[in-house]
Design brief:
The complex is a heterotrimer of chains A (511), B (306) and C (108). Chain A is mainly α. Chain A contains 20 helices and two strands. A two-stranded antiparallel ribbon of chain A has the order 1-2. In chain A, helix 3 runs antiparallel to helix 10 and helix 9 crosses helix 13. Chain A is globular, with a radius of gyration of 22 Å. Chain A starts with 10 loop residues before the first helix and ends in a 10-residue tail after the last helix. The mean pLDDT of chain A is 85. Chain B is mostly helical and 306 residues long. In chain B, 69% of the residues lie in helices and 3% in strands. In chain B, strands 1-2 form a two-stranded antiparallel ribbon. In chain B, helix 2 packs parallel to helix 8 and helix 2 runs parallel beside helix 11. The longest helix of chain B has 35 residues. Chain C has one domain. Chain C has three helices and no strands. Chain C is elongated, with a radius of gyration of 18 Å. Classes of the chains: A mainly alpha (511), B mainly alpha (306), C mainly alpha (108). Chains in contact: A-B, A-C, B-C. Chain C: Pfam families: Oxidored_q2. Chain C: It is found in: Cell membrane.
Amino acid sequence: MSTLPAHAVIAPVLIPLLTGILLVLLRGSATPLRRTISMLGVQALLGASFWLLLQVQSGEVLVYQLGNWPAPFGIVLVADRLAAGMVMLTAVLALFAMMHAIQGSDRRGRQYHALFQFQLLGLNGAFLTGDLFNLFVFFEILLIASYGLLLHGVGAARSRAGLHYVIINLVGSSLFLFAVGTLYGLLGTLNMADLSVRVAALGTADVGLVRAAALLLFLVFALKAALAPLHLWLPGAYSAAGPASAAIFAIMTKVGAYAILRIETLIFGTESGPLEGLIEPWLLVLGLVTIALGTIGVLASRRLAVLISHLVVISAGTILTAFGIGGSAALSAGLYYTFQSTLVAAALFMLTENVARTRGSYADELRAGPMLPAANVLGGLFLVLALAVAGLPPLSGFVGKVLILESSLGTVSAPWVISIVLITSLFTVMALARAGSTLFFKTDTHAGEATLPNAAYLVPVSALALISLLFVIYAQPIYSFAAAATEQILQPEAYIETVLSAKPLPRAGDH
Amino acid sequence: MLSVVGLIVALIFVKFSAPDLALTQLSVEMVTIVLLLLALHFLPWTTPRESSLPRKLRDGALAITGGGLTATLTWAVLTRPYESISHWFLDNSVPGGGGTNVVNVILVDFRGFDTLGEITVLAIAAVGIYMMMRDLHLDAPEADQEGRPWSSDRHPLILATFSRLLLPLALMVAVFILLRGHNLPGGGFIAGLIIAVALVMQYLANGIAWTQPRLSGELHPLIGLGLLTATATGLGSLYFGYPFLTSAHDHFHPPFLGDVELATAMLFDLGVMMVVIGITVVILIRLGSISAGHRRTLLPKNGEPH
Amino acid sequence: MEGLIAAIIGLLTACGIYLVLRARTFPVVMGLTLLSYAVNLFLFVMGRLNIGVPAIIEPDRAQYADPLPQALVLTAIVIGFGMTAFVVVLALRARADLGNDHVDGKDP
C-alpha cells in the first residue's frame, strides 16, 4: 500500500476534489487561468482513470481502505472492471464537455469550473465506493453540484425547472436514507460486500422488511435513472440546463443505472435466496414503458434540447430493459449501449448549442429559421449522431440495440422487447429526420443572415462523432470488455472476499 | 412551529443517549430559523389561496399513507433483534482513534471520508448560493401590513454592547468545544456554528452599516481554505505511505499545559469548522444585506447606534 | 416506547408529505425540513433505543448506545442544512425571476 500504484483507486476522486478546491480559492482570477486549471484537472483525471482501468483489466479487484481501517468498519473504495469502466467513461465525457465549455459557455458564471469538478468528484465517488452510506454522500455531492450547474446563468425557465428538480431529488434523498436506515437496523452493517453476506444468511422473519428496504432503494435509483413513471423531471431539467451542462448530465442517469446493477448483482444476487431477482421483472416492464413514453416525448418536442432530453430518457429505458432481461449477454449488451449512448447524447447536446448560437434568436426551436452558413457540416454531424442515437446501421447505436435484441431471444419477453424497440426506433428516426430537415434545410426568408460558427466549436462534437464510429470498428474489444465486466459482477464472491479479507497496514505508532 | 418540532427532536436525542446530535440539532435549528425568517421577509404577505378540496383530500390521503407506512416500518424494525458492527467502534475508539467520544471519532476518523464529502456538499451549496445571489433583486416590503415601517428604530443599546462583549466569549466557547470534541460531546461542526452565530449577532445587534467595515463579509475564501485543510490533512498520510485520511495521534507535554493529546483528526475538524463558519456567514449576511441594501437609502445613518 | 417513537416518525412524515405537495414554495420548504427531521429520527433509532448510555467511553461501563447511527445522522443533518439553505435561496431566486412563489411558477 505504500507504493504509488496502490493509490490509483482514490486518484479519480482526489484529482477533481483538489482541482475544485483550487478553483473555489481562485474564484476572482482571470478566466484563462481557471480554464487552464480545470482543463489540466480533467486531463489528469483521464490519465488516472486509464491507469486504473489498466490495473483492473486482469480481473483483479482493488480495495482502498480509507483511513487504513478495515471493511466493514471503515469506508472502502472498490475498483473492479465495471467501476473502472464507468470512471473512464466519465473522464472521456468530461474531457469533451470541458473542451466544449471553454469555448465560451463557461462565461455565464464564475463558478462553472468549480461546480464542474465537484460534479466529477460526485460521479467518480459514486462509481467507486463500496459503502452504502458513502454512496448517499456522493449522490448528494453530485446532486448539489448539478443543481448549481443547472442554474448556471439563471433565468426564469431555469429557476422553475431547478426548483422542481431540487425538490424531487430532496425527497429522493429522504427515501434513500429511509432505505439505508432500514438495512442497517436489520442487518447491522453498511458495507455492500458485508450486506451481501448478511442478506445471504438472512432469517425468514426478516425477509419481508429487507425486501421493503430493497424496493425503496431501487425506487430511489430508478428516480435517478429516470425510469418511468419517475422520468418526468428529466426533460425539463436537462433542456433548461443549458447544453454545456446537459452534456455532463448525460452520465447522471447512468449513475442510477449503475447503482441498480451494482446492488442487484452484489447484494441481491444469486446467493440471496428468496430475494434473488427481486426487481428484474419490474425493470423489464418499466424499461419498455420508459422507451415508449420517451418516444412520445420525442415526437412532441418543439425544441431540439427538449427532443434530445427525451432521447436520454429513451436510452435510460433501453439500458434498464437490458438489465431487466438479465443474464450475461443482456447485461454485456446493456453496458456496451451505456458507454456509447452517453457519449452520443452528450455530443447531441453540444451540437444543439452550436446550432442555437448560429441561429441567433431562433435558438434551437424546431421551426424554419435563417439559412445556416455551414449547413452541410452541421447537418452532416447531426445526421451521424442522429443515426447513432436512433440505432440505424452502420453506427454504434445499431450495434448496441442489436446486441440487446439478440440477448432477449429465447426469453418470454422477446416479442415485446423486439416490437417495442423496433417501432420506437422507427418513430425516433422520423422525428429526427423532421427536426434535421427543419433546422438545416428549411429557410425562413424573413430571417436575417445567420452568423458563421467558429470552426473550433465543432471540434469536440466531431471528435465524439468519430468516437461513435470507433465504437463500431472496435465493437469487438469493447464488447469483450463489457462481457468481462459482466462476468465479474455476476460472480460477486471474489469481490466480497477481497473487500472483507483486505488487511490494513500495520501502524508505526501503535500503542 | 418548526423550531418547536426541532426542539422536540433534539430532546428525543438527549433522552436516548445522543448528546452530540442534540447539540448539533439545536445549533442547526437556530441558523435555519434565522434563514427562514429572512426568506419569509421577501415572500408575499397575502394569505395563500386555499387549494381546492379534492386536491387537499388527495394530498391528505397520500400523507397519511406515507406516514402510516413509515410508522409501521419503524415499529417493525425496532421490534426485531439486532446485532451490528458497532462493538468494533466502541472497542477501537480509544486505542485506534485516540478519543473517548466514539461518535466524534467515527466522524473524523473511522468514517472521515463521509465527513469530507459532507463539508464538500456544504461548500458546493455555498458556491451555488453565492451564484444565485449575485444580481438578485428582491422587493422587500418597506412597511408591514398596517403601514408601520420596518426597523426604523435604532439598534438597542444593551443588545449592541452585550453582543460585542459576547463575541470573544463565543470564540472561546467554540475553541473549547472544538478541542474537547474528541473526548466529550462537541466538535468542529458545532464550534463552527457557534462562531457563525456570534458573528451574525453583530449584524443583528449593531446593524449592517456598523459591522460591514469592521468585518469583511467576504468569508468566501474560508470555505475553500477549510476544505483544503481537511483534504490536506488526509493527503498528509499519503506522504507517510498510508491510505488517504489515515490519522495519527500522540501525547505531548508542552510546558504549563500538562499532558495534551493531539490527533491529526483535530486538524480535520478544524477544516470542518472553517467551512461551516464560511457558509453560514456568507448565506445569512448576503441575504441580510439584500434587504439592508435598499433600506439604507431609505433611512440613512439610522443603523449607527453611536 | 417503540410504538411512541414510531408514531412520532409517522406523524412527522405525514405532515412533511402533505406540505411538500402544496403549491407555494414556503410550505414546501417547511415540508422538506419536517421530512428531514423524520428521516434523521428514523436513522437514529435504527441503533435501537438506549436511555442514559451515551457513546462516550468510560471505565466500568459495559453498555453503550450504538454510535454509528448517531454519526450517520450528524452527517445527514449537515447535508440537510446545506440543502435547506440552497432551496431557500433558490425559492427567493425563483420569486425574483418568476414574480410569484408558486412551485410551478404560475398562479392557479
